[in-house]
C-alpha cells in the first residue's frame, strides 16, 4: 500500500518537530515527499517517483546499515533528524519514532573535539547556562551577570553544536541575533522543560539531591533551569545517554576572563584569517583524543589558582626532565582508547564487543601508565597523584571480568555470536559444545560418504538458498545411493540432501539461533554492567587525558626551549620572550617586557610591520600559558596571575561580516573599559583608526587616561598616533616603548656596521630590528612599507616628496594627470585641499615640480624677497597696497 506508507510517514512526521524523518521500510530507511527532495539535494541521493492509484510522490532511501554516515552529514549541517524504526506486531508491523538525532546530541561522532549541547535562559538580572557533552558525559552549569557578552564568552569557550534558548531568550532579539552568529544551530525545546520546579526535579533526579548544594548552585535558579532543560532535551531525543552524565560541574568562578573577542584575537584554537596556525595546533603533541580535548579546554580556560598552576607546572617540569619515562608514558597512552566516550557508548547501549575490548585495553593502559610513572623518576611527581584519581581496584576488577568474557577478536556485530570466551557461562558452553558437535558431524560427512560409496568427486557445502548439501560431479552421479534427494542440478555437478543431513542442519540452525540469542543477552548484560561503571571509566579517561596533556606541554617545552614561569605577587616581567606561534615561522627576535605597579601602561609605537602586534600578543600569550600551567617561550618569566585578558585588535573579520568596523571597535573598547580590573591585562592594538583622525586621537587619549586612572589595568597600547607618546610625561604609570627600526641599514649596511645580531632582518631599505626599546619613535615608515609591498617607484618617490613637505609644513602642489603642477595647495591647518588654479601652461617638467625656490625665475625671487622683507607692523595699509601693486606689475612683466 504505497499511499498507506506515505500517509504513515506524514503522520509520524507530524508527531515530531524534527526537520526530517527517516522511516524504516524493511532493509531501508526511506524519506518521502518534501523530505525526499531535500535529502536528494543535500546528500546527493537518487530520488525516484513512486506512484500508485494515480498519485505519485518522491522517495529516497538508504540501506539500514548505512544510515549513520548520512545522519552525521545532515546533523553536522544543522538539521535535526527523527528516526522511525519498524517493529513486529501481531498482525504484521508498525513504526514509531525511536530517537531524534540533533547537532548537540550526535553520539556517532569521530571528532576529537567535544560536542556540546547548551541551554541559555534569562533569570532575573543575569543568565543561566548549561553545557553537556553527550559523547563524554561532561555536564557544566553556571550563572553569569546580565551582560550578553558574558553569555557569548561562555558560548565561544564551549563552542556548542546546538543551543536551546529559554522562553525569555527567544524573545530577546539582540541575544538571539548574537547566538545565531555562533556556529551552533538553535533548537526550540518545550517551554515547560525550562520551568524552575520541573527543571530542579530533573537535575535532582539525575545527579542526586545533594548535587546542587554541593556545587553551590542550590539557589541558582538560572543554572538549574538551563541544566534541567538540557537533561530533558537529551531524554527526549531517545539516545539513552542520560546515565553517562554522572557529575554536575560548576565552573568559571575561579577562571580568568577571556571574552569571545579575545579568544578569537589570540587565535587560541582557531585562526582569524587565511593561513597561520592556532596556538593549540602548535603546542598540541597529545597522543589521545581525550588529551587533545583537555589541552583545548586548558588553553581556553586558564586559571588564577596558583596551587593548581604549580601542580601542573611541577608535572610538566618532571616530565621535561625525565625524557625516557615521558616517551614511554606517551607510547603507553597512545595504546589506549577514549574512555570517556566509551563510557557514553556503554551507557547508551551503542557499544559493541569491540568497544568492550577497547575498554579492557584502556584499563590495561591505565595500569601500565601507573607502573611507568611509579618505576621512574616521575614517582613523586604530580603524575603519580593523577593516576590515583580513579579506583584502581575497581578498574582491575572490570578489566578482569572483560578479560574472561570477551573473545580475543570479536566480530563487529553483536547479533551473530562468537562474542565470548569459553568458560564464561556454563549454558553458553553447553550450547557451544552441541553446536560444534553438530558442525563436526557435517564436516566429516564428505569423507564418510566418499569411503562408503567410492565417489571421489563428493563434497559438502552450505549456502543461503540450498542450506547444507552434498555435491557430486556429473561423472559419478550414477553411483549416488537411493537415500540422496536431488535438490539442484548445476553445469558440472548435482546437489543432494539426505534425511539425516536435514536433521543435522536443523540441529545446527537451532544451536546457532540459541547461541546467538544467549550471547546477545549475555552481551547486553555485560554492557550494562560496564555502563554502570561509567563514572570509573570517566575517571580513567580524565586521568589519562591529564597525563597526556602534561606530557604534551613537556614535549613542547623541551623541543622549543621554553622555561618554567615563576608565579609572583605583582607585575609581569618577561626576559627574552617570544611569540609561541610566530617563533616557528621566522627567525624570531626575542623581546623583554616589564609591567610593574609603577609602570603598568606602555604605549607601544613603531613603524607598520615592525612587530608591535606580535609583541603585544606574545605578552598576552606568555601570560596565558603561565596560567595554563605550561612553560613559556622566554628566557625567564615572572608573572603575577591576571584575572582577565582583554584585547582589541583590527577587526578585519568583522568587516567581512558586514558589521561596521568602527562600531565593533568601539563596543569592544567599551567592554574592556567596563570589565577590566586592576589585575587584568589589556592589549589595545590601535584605537580610533576607524574614524577621522582627530576623533580617533581624542578617543584614544581619553581611553588611555581612563585605563590609567580608573581601571589601572596592566596595559599595552600600540598606536600610530604619536601624540599619545606625550602622555608619558603627564601620567605617572605610562611609559613609552617602541619597536626599533634602523633606517640606515640595508643588507650590506648592517654587515658593514658589524652588527652581530643575526636576527636583524632586512626588508627593503629599512631594517626592522624587531627589538622593543625604551622611549617613543618619531618616524612614520608608511612609505617604506608601500615600497616593500611593491607600490610603483614613481609613486613611492612622490610620496617621499609629499611627506618631506608635510614635515617641513610646506604647501604641497598637487599634480595633474599629465604630471604638471596644478598649483592646488594642501593646507596643513585645515587638513584639506584649498582652491584649484589652472595649470600653468605646462612648461613645468617633472624635475621642476620637485624643485625648491632656488629654481624660480629671477622676478619671482625678487618679489618673494621683497615680501619676506616687508614688516607689516611698520607699514601703513596705503603703503602696503602700493607695494602689492608693484609686485604684481613685476610678475606680469615677466
Ligand atoms: P605591526 O603590528 O607593527 O604592524 P606585526 O606584529 O604584524 O607588525 O609584525 C609584522 C611581521 O613581522 C610579522 O609578519 C612577523 O612575522 C614579523 N615579526 C614580528 N615580530 C617579530 C620578531 N620579534 N622577530 C621576528 N619577526 C617578527
From TrEMBL:
Pfam families: MutS_I, MutS_II, MutS_III, MutS_IV, MutS_V. Residues 680-696 form the DNA mismatch repair proteins mutS family domain. It comes from the Archaea. Residues 487-521 form a coiled coil. The keyword DNA-binding applies. Residues 882-894 have a biased composition (Basic and acidic residues). Keywords: ATP-binding, Coiled coil, DNA damage, DNA repair, DNA-binding, Nucleotide-binding. Residues 742-774, 815-894 are annotated as: Disordered. The keyword DNA damage applies. CDD domains: ABC_MutS1. GO terms for molecular function: ATP binding; ATP-dependent DNA damage sensor activity; mismatched DNA binding. GO terms for biological process: mismatch repair. InterPro entries: DNA_mismatch_repair_MutS (IPR005748), DNA_mismatch_repair_MutS-lik_N (IPR007695), DNA_mismatch_repair_MutS/MSH (IPR017261), DNA_mismatch_repair_MutS_C (IPR000432), DNA_mismatch_repair_MutS_clamp (IPR007861), DNA_mismatch_repair_MutS_core (IPR007696), DNA_mismatch_repair_MutS_N (IPR016151), DNA_mismatch_repair_MutS_sf (IPR036187). Residues 849-863 have a biased composition (Acidic residues). Belongs to the DNA mismatch repair MutS family. This protein is involved in the repair of mismatches in DNA. This is DNA mismatch repair protein MutS. It comes from Halococcus hamelinensis 100A6.
Amino acid at each position: 500500500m504505497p499511499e498507506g506508507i506515505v500517509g504513515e510517514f506524514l503522520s509520524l512526521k507530524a508527531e515530531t518537530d524534527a526537520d526530517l524523518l527517516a522511516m524504516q521500510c524493511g532493509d531501508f530507511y526511506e524519506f518521502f515527499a518534501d523530505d525526499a527532495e531535500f535529502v536528494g539535494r543535500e546528500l546527493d541521493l537518487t530520488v525516484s517517483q513512486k506512484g500508485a492509484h494515480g498519485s505519485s510522490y518522491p522517495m529516497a532511501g538508504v540501506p539500514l546499515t548505512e544510515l549513520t554516515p548520512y545522519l552525521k552529514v545532515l546533523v553536522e549541517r544543522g538539521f535535526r533528524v527523527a528516526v522511525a524504526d519498524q517493529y513486529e506486531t501481531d498482525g504484521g508491523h508498525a513504526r514509531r519514532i525511536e530517537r531524534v538525532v540533533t547537532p548537540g546530541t550526535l553520539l556517532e561522532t569521530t571528532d576529537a573535539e567535544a560536542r556540546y549541547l547548551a541551554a541559555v535562559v534569562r533569570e532575573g538580572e543575569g543568565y543561566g547556562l548549561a553545557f553537556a557533552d553527550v559523547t563524554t558525559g561532561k555536564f557544566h552549569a553556571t550563572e553569569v551577570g546580565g551582560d550578553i557578552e558574558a553569555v557569548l564568552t561562555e558560548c565561544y569557550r564551549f563552542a556548542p553544536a546546538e543551543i536551546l534558548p529559554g522562553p525569555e531568550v527567544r524573545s530577546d532579539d539582540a541575544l538571539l541575533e548574537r547566538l545565531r552568529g555562533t556556529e551552533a544551530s538553535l533548537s526550540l525545546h518545550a517551554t515547560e522543560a525550562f520551568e524552575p520546579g520541573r527543571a530542579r526535579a530533573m537535575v535532582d533526579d539525575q545527579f542526586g539531591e545533594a548535587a546542587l548544594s554541593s556545587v553551590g548552585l542550590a539557589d541558582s535558579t538560572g543554572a538549574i533551569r538551563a541544566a534541567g532543560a538540557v537533561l530533558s532535551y537529551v531524554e527526549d531525543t531517545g539516545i539513552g545517554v542520560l546515565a553517562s552524565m554522572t557529575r554536575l560541574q560548576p565552573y568559571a568562578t575561579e577562571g580568568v576572563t577571556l571574552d569571545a573577542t579575545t579568544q578569537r584575537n589570540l587565535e587560541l584554537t582557531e585562526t582569524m584569517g587565511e593561513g597561520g596556525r592556532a596556538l593549540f595546533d602548535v603546542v598540541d603533541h597529545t597522543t589521545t583524543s581525550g588529551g587533545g580535548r583537555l589541552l583545548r579546554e586548558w588553553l581556553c580556560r586558564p586559571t588564577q589558582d596558583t596551587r593548581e598552576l604549580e601542580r601542573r607546572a611541577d608535572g610538566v617540569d618532571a616530565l621535561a626532565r625525565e625524557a625516557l619515562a615521558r616517551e614511554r608514558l606517551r607510547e603507553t597512552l597512545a595504546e589506549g582508547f577514549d574512555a570517556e566516550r566509551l563510557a557514553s557508548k556503554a551507557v547508551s547501549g551503542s557499544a559493541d564487543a569491540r568497544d568492550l575490548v577497547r575498554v579492557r585495553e584502556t584499563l590495561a593502559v591505565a595500569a601500565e601508565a601507573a607502573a611507568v610513572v611509579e618505576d621512574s623518576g616521575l614517582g613523586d611527581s604530580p603524575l603519580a597523584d593523577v593516576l590515583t584519581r580513579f579506583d584502581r581496584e575497581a578498574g582491575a576488577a572490570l578489566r578482569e571480568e572483560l578479560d574472561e568474557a570477551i573473545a580475543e577478536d570479536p566480530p563487529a556485530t553483536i547479533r551473530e555470536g562468537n562474542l565470548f570466551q569459553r568458560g564464561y557461562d556454563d549454558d553458553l558452553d553447553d550450547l557451544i559444545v552441541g553446536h560444534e558437535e553438530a558442525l563436526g558431524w557435517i564436516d566429516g560427512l564428505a569423507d564418510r560418504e566418499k569411503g562408503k560409496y567410492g565417489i571421489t568427486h563428493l563434497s559438502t557445502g552450505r549456502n543461503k538458498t540450498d542450506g547444507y548439501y552434498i555435491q557430486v560431479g556429473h561423472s559419478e552421479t550414477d553411483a549416488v545411493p537411493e537415500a540422496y534427494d536431488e535438490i539442484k542440478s548445476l553445469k558440472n555437478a548435482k546437489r543432494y540432501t539426505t534425511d539425516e543431513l536435514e536433521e543435522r542442519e536443523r540441529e545446527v540452525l537451532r544451536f546457532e539461533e540459541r547461541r546467538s540469542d544467549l550471547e546477545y543477552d549475555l552481551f547486553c548484560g555485560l554492557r550494562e554492567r560496564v555502563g554502570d561503571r561509567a563514572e570509573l571509566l570517566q575517571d580513567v579517561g580524565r586521568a589519562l587525558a591529564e597525563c597526556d596533556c602534561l606530557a604534551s606541554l613537556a614535549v613542547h617545552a623541551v623541543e622549543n626551549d621554553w622555561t618554567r614561569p615563576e608565579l609572583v605577587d605583582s607585575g609581569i616581567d618577561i626576559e627574552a620572550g617570544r611569540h609561541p606561534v610566530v617563533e616557528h615561522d621566522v627567525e624570531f627576535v626575542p623581546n623583554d617586557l616589564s609591567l610593574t605597579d609603577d609602570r603598568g601602561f606602555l604605549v607601544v609605537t613603531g613603524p607598520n610591520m615592525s612587530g608591535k602586534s606580535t609583541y603585544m600578543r606574545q605578552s598576552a600569550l606568555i601570560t596565558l600559558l603561565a596560567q595554563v600551567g605550561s612553560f613559556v617561550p622566554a628566557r625567564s618569566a615572572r608573572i603575577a596571575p591576571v584575572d582577565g585578558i582583554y584585547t582589541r585588535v583590527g577587526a578585519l573579520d568583522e568587516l567581512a561580516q558586514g558589521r561596521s568596523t568602527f562600531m565593533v571597535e568601539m563596543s569592544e573598547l567599551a567592554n574592556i573599559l567596563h570589565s577590566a580590573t586592576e589585575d587584568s591585562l589589556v592589549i589595545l592594538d590601535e584605537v580610533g583608526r576607524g574614524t577621522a583622525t582627530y576623533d580617533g586621537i581624542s578617543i584614544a587619549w581619553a581611553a588611555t587616561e581612563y585605563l590609567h586612572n580608573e581601571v589601572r589595568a596592566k596595559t599595552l597600547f600600540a598606536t600610530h598616533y604619536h601624540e599619545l607618546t606625550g602622555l608619558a610625561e603627564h601620567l605617572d604609570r605610562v611609559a613609552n616603548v617602541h619597536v626599533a627600526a634602523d633606517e640606515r641599514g640595508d643588507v650590506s649596511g648592517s654587515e658593514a656596521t658589524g652588527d652581530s645580531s643575526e636576527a636583524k632582518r632586512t626588508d627593503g631599505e629599512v631594517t626592522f630590528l624587531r627589538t622593543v626599546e625604551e622611549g617613543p619613535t618619531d618616524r612614520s615608515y608608511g612609505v617604506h612599507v608601500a615600497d616593500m609591498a611593491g607600490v610603483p617607484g614613481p609613486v613611492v618617490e612622490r610620496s617621499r616628496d609629499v611627506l618631506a613637505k608635510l614635515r617641513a609644513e610646506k604647501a604641497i602642489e598637487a599634480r595633474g594627470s599629465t604630471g604638471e603642477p596644478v598649483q592646488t595647495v594642501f593646507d596643513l591647518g585645515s587638513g584639506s585641499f584649498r582652491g584649484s588654479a589652472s595649470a600653468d601652461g605646462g612648461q613645468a617638467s617633472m624635475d621642476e615640480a620637485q624643485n625648491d625656490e632656488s629654481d624660480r625665475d629671477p622676478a619671482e625671487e625678487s618679489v618673494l624677497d621683497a615680501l619676506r622683507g616687508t614688516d607689516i607692523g611698520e607699514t601703513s595699509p596705503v603703503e602696503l597696497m602700493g607695494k602689492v601693486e608693484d609686485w604684481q606689475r613685476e610678475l606680469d612683466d615677466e
